[in-house]
């Protein structure tokens, strides 16, 4: 049965879901474009799928599911037997995947998103960044990435010797931090973090998603 | 093998882990008190367990695991065959548990924690709340709880007809929102949210954890 993904390839959360589908070698899916510019995500029909009015939503048969990190967990389990073992191979590996996926969501994502909002989204609205917020958040992110540097000196990926949901979940926001917010040095100045970024951002799944996104932006 | 939980019963994140252990009828665990007042969580020994210097951490044999929502997922799976089915009984139920657990973490927790910080933590430091932040965050939380009200009019628990990790994860922060921040009306003014709160906050597991916490506070 075809999986429908309601979203936009340029959105971080949709990109997380699409990358998982490619990693799992699922080709039977359809991306239903949700036009944020015309507020399609705030219309009654869409709100019956996603009551908070955000993207993405996935429909798989009778199941309607939102929250990108819930969707990628669902896909990793449903397609456990094919593609990359995104949840690891043992209960202990899986626990470590969950741990670093939570670190991404509770720590990295919060800080990186604040920086992107301050330096990119506010500029689009003609607002200056709030300098004290930017400074404090960069310091916070530096300390998070120092922990990553130590962890990635011990293993090639966050949860161990395998590419997992935890690494994957960092891809979209790290890209916008490096490109849109023009802060590549946060990554490139740390040897092991930079090696990890090279390793994960050159995966065919992610290259496909960035191509889908840049096709939309042209 | 005895599970060691490094934390404090009064901490929201530790409480989440202890409630899961009680729901799973795991009695073979030991709570190793981490004295935050003396900065025990910032000492080198502790930082080898939890490099970000926060609580809790769980040790189970050779596995050391942090991030409370990763720990509760691990425990729900490890003890799948005993106690409450906190992850549901089918892949679809489990997907819905993940969805609402992410809503808790990304939406409810962020807003509720900001309110508790503004009205409780700042007062302890002699600082006044930032009124514009409080107002905007209460509005945000009201809109989140309106979605909960609709969802809970359709099923007794967030993910369906069973108490799950998603409900459980709301317990500590909702308690501090209602008691410490003195905002019970956010819950009690919504019929279905209030019924749900009565249903989940009277579970023996949670009562045990609140008793452990109030024993410490005496």
Automatic annotation (TrEMBL), chains A, B:
Q: Name one Pfam family in it.
A: GST_N
Gene Ontology molecular functions: glutathione binding; glutathione transferase activity
Please list the residue ranges annotated as the GST N-terminal domain: 1-83
Please give the family membership noted in the entry: Belongs to the GST superfamily. Phi family.
Q: Does the keyword Transferase apply?
A: yes
The organism is Adiantum capillus-veneris
Reactions listed under catalytic activity: RX + glutathione = an S-substituted glutathione + a halide anion + H(+)
Q: What UniProt keywords apply to this chain's record, in alphabetical order?
A: Transferase
Q: What is this protein called?
A: glutathione transferase
- The EC number of this protein is 2.5.1.18
